[in-house]
Design goal:
This protein is mainly α. The protein has helices at 5-31, 36-56, 61-83, 85-90, 100-120, 123-138, 144-152, 161-183, 185-197, 203-219, 222-239, 244-257, 268-276, 280-308, 322-329, 334-344, 349-364, 376-410, 412-424, 428-443, 448-458, 460-465, 470-483, 492-501, 505-515, 517-528, 538-560, 569-583, 587-616. Helix 3 crosses helix 5 and helix 11 packs antiparallel against helix 12. The radius of gyration is 26 Å and the shape is globular.
Length: 624
C-alpha cells in the first residue's frame, strides 16, 4: 500500500516534533528553561502531539478528523499556559474568578489527556483518573470550576510534581536509554553476562537474571525489558532444557526487578526523590540492599533449580571471553559510567543524564566496528524514537497529577489514611498487609509511576502515621506497584514473557510467584527494620544486611528443594524456618538461624561426601 503525500508529510512532521522534543529537553537541562509551569505545559504539548498525530494517518476519515481535533484542542490548552503565564502567576487561586476561556480550555485538556492516555497507556489508568474526577464532583462536593482551576491553573494538578519530574528528569533518562540501546550496548550486557555466568549450572537462566538487571535499570519498564532481552534469553533457556513456562517466568521476574535496581531505577525513583525531598542518589542508596536481596534470591533459586534438575551450563568454547568482550564492546558502557560518575559527584540527575546522552555518539567512534552505528539519519531516528518513548510516561504523569489534584482538594488522602488505620487498629503489620493488597490492585495494568503516585496520596500517610520511616513507606508502596507486573491476574511482564515462550500465562505466573517469593517479603523487612535501607548505626546495618543475605539464600533453598543436595520435605521446612530466623530482627533469632543453617550445611556436606565415597569405591570382585 502506497502512502499518500499527506501521509508522508505527517510521518515527517511526527519525526520532526520528536527530534524537537528531545533537543528542547536537552537544551533546558544544559542552559536552563522557563518557569516550571510553562516548561511542564510545553512538555505536555509535545506528548499530546506525538500521541494523536500518528493516528491522523490511520483509520476512517471521522477517526482521523477526531485525532486531529484532539491534537488542536490539547495544543490550544497548553499554549494558553505559555502565552498567559504572567496573568496566571499574578492571579490568586480560588479567589480570582475563573474565566470562561480558562474553564473551556481546562475541560478540553482533561478530556484530551484521558483519551490520549487510553490510546497510548491503556484504559485502566484513564478510568482511574476519570473515577477520581467523578468522586470529586459527586461525593467530594467540589464545584466544577474549582476542580478545573486546581487541575489546570496550579502546580497541584496536571502540572504538579509528576509532570515536573517527567519534564526535567525522566524524559532525559528515557532519551539516554534509547540512545544507549541504539548504540549496541544491549549486546555488551548480553555478552558480558554470558561470559560471566553462562558456563555455570543453569547458565542461560542466570544470564537472563544478570542481563535483565543491567538492562532493566536503564529501561525502567518491566514489559519493555522482557520484550528486549527476553527475545534472546527465553529461547536460549528453552534450548538448554528449561521448560517454556519456567523460562518465561525467569525473564519476567528478572525484568521486573530492574525497575528498582540502582543506579537508574526507571522513572519512579525521580518522583520519589521529589516527594521525599532528597537527592536521587539518596533514593538509589535506599534501594541498594533490597535490590541486592531480590536478585540474590532469584540467582540462588535459579542455581538450586538447575542443580535439582541436573541442568548444566553452556560449553565454555561456545561462550565469549569476558576480556575480549570488554576489549571489543566495553567502550559502549562509557556513557553509563560517565552518568554514574556525574551523579556520584553531586551534580543534578538531569545534568548526569545529559552528559550520558552527549557521550553516546562519541563512544561509538572509539572502535572501527561501531563507528558507523550512528549516521545523521540514524541519529534523527534515535532522537525521534526516544521522544515517542517519553509520551506514555508524560501522559501517565498527567493522569497522576489529576489524581493528586483531586486527593488534595477533597482531603481524600486524610480520609483514606484514617480508614486504613481504623481497619488495622494498632497493628502495623495488618496496615502493611492492607497497603500491600491495595498497592498490588492499584498497580495492575498501570505504569509504575502513576500507581506509585496514587499510593503515595492514599496509603503512605497511614503507614507513616503508624511509625514507619517515610523512606521505607515510599519504597514499600513502590515495590508492590512494581510487583504487580508479575502478580496475577494481570501480570503484564508474565504475559509478555508467555507470548515469547509459548507457555500458558497461568503456569508462567505461578512459577514467577515462586521465584519472586522473597520480593514479597523484603518490603516488610525494611518497613519494620530500616537498617536494610542503610538507615541507622553502621553495626546494625552490617548485621541486618548480612543476616538478610543468608536468609534469602536459605529461603530460596527451601522453596526449590535443593541446597548442597536434594532436600526432603522436612528438610525444606527446616530451611524455611532457618530463613525466618535470619530475616527476623534480634540477636537471639540471628544466633538460632546461624546454628540451624550451619548444622544443616554440615549435615548436607556429610551426605554428599558419603554418596561420593560410595560411588568412588569399586564393587568387590566375585570369587572364582
Amino acid at each position: 500500500m502506497r502512502c499518500s503525500p499527506l501521509d508522508k508529510g505527517l510521518v515527517s512532521l511526527v519525526t520532526a516534533i520528536g527530534v524537537a522534543m528531545a533537543i528542547v529537553h536537552m537544551s533546558v537541562a544544559a542552559f536552563g528553561g522557563p518557569a516550571p509551569l510553562v516548561f511542564r505545559s510545553e512538555h505536555l504539548a509535545f506528548a499530546i502531539a506525538l500521541a494523536f498525530l500518528p493516528d491522523v494517518r490511520m483509520g476512517r476519515l471521522p477517526d482521523r478528523f477526531l485525532s486531529l481535533s484532539l491534537t488542536v484542542f490539547g495544543l490550544c490548552a497548553t499554549a494558553y499556559i505559555v502565552l498567559a503565564a504572567d496573568h496566571i502567576f499574578q492571579r490568586i487561586a480560588y479567589i480570582d474568578p475563573l474565566t470562561s476561556v480558562q474553564l473551556v480550555l481546562g475541560s478540553a485538556l482533561v478530556l484530551v489527556i484521558l483519551e490520549a492516555t487510553r490510546r497510548r497507556v491503556g484504559l485502566p489508568l484513564a478510568l482511574t483518573a476519570a473515577t477520581f474526577i467523578a468522586y470529586a464532583l459527586a461525593i467530594g462536593d467540589i464545584e466544577y470550576g474549582a476542580l478545573m482551576e486546581q487541575l489546570y491553573l496550579t502546580t497541584d494538578g496536571i502540572f504538579g510534581i509528576p509532570m515536573g519530574v517527567s519534564a526535567t528528569y525522566v524524559s532525559l533518562f528515557i532519551i539516554f536509554g534509547v540512545m544507549v540501546e541504539r548504540s549496541g550496548a544491549g549486546r555488551l550486557f548480553m555478552d558480558a553476562s554470558l561470559a560471566l555466568v553462562g558456563h555455570t549450572s543453569g547458565g542461560p537462566a542466570k544470564v537472563a537474571c544478570v542481563t535483565s538487571a543491567f538492562f532493566g535499570s536503564v529501561s525502567g519498564s518491566a514489559v519493555a525489558n522482557v520484550m528486549t532481552t527476553g527475545a534472546f534469553t527465553i529461547p536460549l533457556m528453552k534450548r538448554t532444557g528449561y521448560r517454556p513456562a519456567f523460562s518465561g517466568a525467569v525473564e519476567a521476574v528478572a525484568s521486573t526487578g530492574g525497575q528498582f535496581m540502582p543506579p537508574i531505577m526507571g522513572a519512579t525513583a525521580f518522583v520519589m526523590a521529589e516527594f521525599l525531598g532528597v537527592s536521587y542518589l539518596q533514593v538509589a542508596a535506599y534501594a541498594a540492599v533490597p535490590a541486592l536481596l531480590y536478585f540474590l534470591a532469584l540467582f540462588a533459586a535459579l542455581h538450586f533449580e538447575a542443580k535439582r534438575n541436573g541442568l548444566s551450563g553452556l560449553p565454555r568454547a561456545d561462550l565469549p571471553q569476558f576480556g575480549k568482550v570488554l576489549r571489543r564492546e566495553g567502550h559502549l558502557a562509557l556513557p553509563l559510567v560517565l552518568l554514574i560518575f556525574v551523579l556520584g559527584s553531586g551534580y543534578s540527575a538531569g545534568l548526569a543524564a545529559l552528559s550520558g546522552i552527549l557521550a553516546v555518539v562519541p563512544a561509538t567512534w572509539l572502535r572501527a566496528h561501531t563507528r558507523q552505528v550512528f549516521n545523521p539519519l540514524s541519529l534523527i531516528e534515535a532522537l525521534a524514537a526516544s521522544a515517542k518513548a517519553v509520551v506514555p510516561v508524560a501522559l501517565a504523569c498527567a493522569c497522576a497529577g489529576i489524581v493528586i489534584g483531586v486527593v488534595t482538594l477533597t482531603g481524600l488522602g486524610i480520609e483514606f489514611a484514617s480508614l486504613v488505620i481504623s481497619a488495622a487498629g494498632s497493628s502495623l503489620m495488618l496496615a502493611l498487609i492492607l497497603t500491600m493488597l491495595a498497592g498490588i490492585v492499584l498497580g495492575m495494568g498501570m505504569p509504575t509511576t502513576p500507581a506509585y503516585v496514587i499510593q503515595v496520596s492514599l496509603l503512605v500517610p497511614a503507614v507513616v502515621k503508624l511509625g514507619v520511616e517515610p523512606a521505607a513507606a515510599h519504597l514499600f508502596v513502590l515495590y508492590f506497584a512494581v510487583l504487580s507486573n508479575i502478580t496475577p491476574p494481570v501480570a503484564m511482564a508474565s504475559l509478555a514473557a508467555s507470548a515469547i515462550s509459548g507457555a500458558r500465562l497461568g503456569e508462567t505466573s505461578r512459577i514467577a510467584l515462586k521465584l519472586a517469593a522473597t520480593a514479597y517479603l523484603v518490603p516488610f523487612l525494611f518497613a519494620l527494620y530500616p537498617a536494610l535501607l542503610l538507615i541507622g548505626e553502621p553495626s546494625e546495618i552490617v548485621l541486618s544486611t548480612a543476616t538478610a543475605l543468608i536468609g534469602v539464600v536459605a529461603l530460596a533453598a527451601g522453596f526449590t528443594g535443593w541446597l548442597i543436595n536434594s532436600l526432603r520435605l522436612f528438610e525444606r521446612v527446616i530451611m524455611l524456618c532457618a530463613s525466618g530466623a535470619f530475616l527476623l530482627p534480634g540477636v537471639a533469632t540471628d544466633i538460632i538461624g546461624t546454628v540451624v543453617f550451619s548444622a544443616f550445611c554440615i549435615y548436607q556436606y556429610k551426605i554428599r561426601a558419603r554418596d561420593t565415597s560410595a560411588l568412588a569405591v569399586p564393587a568387590p570382585e566375585k570369587a572364582n
